[in-house]
Amino acid sequence: MAYQDRITIDPRVRSGKACIKGTRIAVADVLDYLGGGMTPPEILDDFPDLTAEDIQACLTFAAERERRLTVAA
Fold first, then answer.
1. Measured between alpha carbons, how far is 64 from 67 in angstroms, rounded to an integer?
2. Environment class of residue 28 by beta-carbon count within 10 Å: exposed (0-12), middle (13-18) or buried (19+)?
3. Which of 11, 58, 60, 63 falls 20 to 30 Å from 69 in CA-CA distance?
4. Is 21 exposed, middle or buried (0-12, 13-18, 19+ CB in 10 A)?
5. 14 neighbors 24 (Cβ within 8 angstroms)
6. CA 10 to CA 28: how far, in whole Å?
7. How far lies 60's CA from each of 7, 12, 45, in Å?
8. What angle do CA 53, 55, 61 make, to 5 degrees?
9. Are 57 and 7 in contact (CB under 8 A)?
10. pLDDT tens profile 16-53
11. Which CATH fold would you assign to the domain 3-72?
12. pLDDT digits 0-9 by tens, 54-69
């Protein structure tokens, strides 16, 4: 699965933050929840519009962004 199938950046939604398509849930929010200790099942319980694939897409998006930043530095 390509993260582009699930992640979108639209300047009209959440000030252009990367969000999960069809929601206003930002990738950064999901990463913050994971970093704060929430498990994917806990996130899915709190946000029934999300899927496990959405969470995986957030991680893939973040990893790709990190790779691009590392190469640019």
1. 5
2. middle
3. 11
4. middle
5. yes
6. 15
7. 10, 23, 21
8. 100
9. yes
10. 999 999 999 999 999 999 999 999 999 999 999 999 99
11. Arc Repressor Mutant, subunit A (1.10.10)
12. 999 999 999 998 988 7
